[in-house]
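Appendix C reproduces, verbatim, an entry submitted by the partner laboratory led by Prof. M.T., so that reviewers can inspect both the input and the predicted structure.
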Amino acid sequence: MHISIDKDVCIGAGQCALTAPGVFTQDDDGFSELLPGREDGGGDPMVREAARACPVGAITVSEA
């Protein structure tokens, strides 16, 4: 699995970090980022739900 966050689209709503806190966090400016070592989702079953929860569609999840 590959996860990408479009930083130009992200508005910092934080829904991803609330839905899958083991994969997503927010940087000092409040924008979403992946936790170190979790670029592949770390097997978290909520990754796809976190992408769906993003109000602006900034998160893309694809199979590697």
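DSSP finds two helices and four strands in the chain. Additional entries are available on request from the coordinating office.
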